[in-house]
Write a structure and sequence with these properties.
The chain is mainly β. 5% of the residues lie in helices and 28% in strands. Strands 1-10-9-4 form a 4-stranded antiparallel β-sheet. Strands 2-3-5 form a 3-stranded antiparallel β-sheet, with no helix packed on it. The chain has a 3-stranded antiparallel β-sheet with strand order 6-7-8, with no helix packed on it. Strand 6 and strand 7 form a beta hairpin. The longest helix has 7 residues. It starts with a strand and ends in a 23-residue tail after the last strand.
Length: 155
């Protein structure tokens, strides 16, 4: 089902206590999604459609709220700007990429993504009926994984 989230300014306003402009994930329960700005240097969503869920061209990614390990809900951590699963400790960067290795938990892949579109006014819609499995984990220090802002997270 499609869920209209709104513009980047709408997301910032609805989550004013969080550093959304720095790329911190915003949670939308009705869409079972985390909405994340891909490149915080661009403070907007870019019109277009992305059925793969990568979101780079639209500057936004919608992550499915389920940890790929056993389905718990990872939580965004303000300390390191990562997503951390409270059940078994799987950890992901803010764009949902799983950090590789046993120290970062047992999830077999990165967080899954939803198909998204951004209209001409910059409003995001998430299509929760179209999901793409997350890519394989990436080792800390390698391109494609955003390092944590702090060595200590929330779990």
């Amino acid at each position: 089902a499609p869920f209209r989230i709104g513009t980047f300014d709408d997301v910032k306003t609805a989550n004013s206590s969080l550093p959304i402009d720095e790329g911190f994930p915003a949670y939308y329960a009705e869409a079972r999604s985390f909405v994340v700005l891909v490149d915080p240097a661009q403070q907007r969503f870019i019109p277009g459609e992305d059925t793969t869920g990568d979101g780079t061209a639209l500057n936004v990614r919608a992550l499915y709220q389920r940890c790929p390990h056993l389905g718990c809900k990872p939580n965004p951590c303000l300390r390191n700007i990562w997503l951390e699963c409270p059940c078994h400790g799987s950890r992901y960067d803010r764009l949902g990429i799983k950090a590789d290795g046993p120290a970062f938990g047992p999830a077999p892949r990165s967080m899954d993504r939803f198909s998204i579109s951004v209209d001409g006014d910059g409003a995001l819609t998430i299509n929760t009926g179209k999901i793409t499995l997350g890519p394989l984990p990436v080792a800390l220090g390698q391109p494609g994984l955003i390092p944590p802002r702090s060595p200590v997270g929330c779990i």
